[in-house]
């Protein structure tokens, strides 16, 4: 579904990016068009609900940050057009973070292939990408189980999560196939007591995807 007619009807030619943080009612109306008969005909309740949730997250991410008046409404429309179908909270946060970065001048443009990569991510993929920098362990005589290592860190962040070893294994396969992570080279077994890091690392593309889907940062 093309979002452009909906955005046009909702904003009456105004800049949607500038209107996004303008308060909960305005924000929801500008993204979803809650008060517009035209948009109600276009949007099903699920899509409205999804964008309203994302709008709340955008407000939270941009709270207290200066906004970029020259941010691209075209890029915002591209993100919103994809985001309307996402109803999973952890994945909604990715799209909300991208819009928030755009609004605060921390994102200027998005390659089409990046959008496709982000659309392909599942919750377990996001969890793994999140914990990769946090992974560390002490080598013991019993060795290390990579799946348990990642699962324990994931459970610290999302106690409600329940991912099997197979889930994690398949996520590694997917993330490697789309070139977001790679497995580092090892030089043999480490000595007992050695502090180890994640056997996986971000690729250049992986770092970029993690960056643009993270909330905007506040200036020091």
UniProtKB/TrEMBL annotation:
<protein>
    <recommendedName>
        <fullName>DUF4393 domain-containing protein</fullName>
    </recommendedName>
</protein>
<dbReference type="InterPro" id="IPR025506">
    <property type="entry name" value="Abi_alpha"/>
</dbReference>
<dbReference type="Pfam" id="PF14337">
    <property type="entry name" value="Abi_alpha"/>
</dbReference>
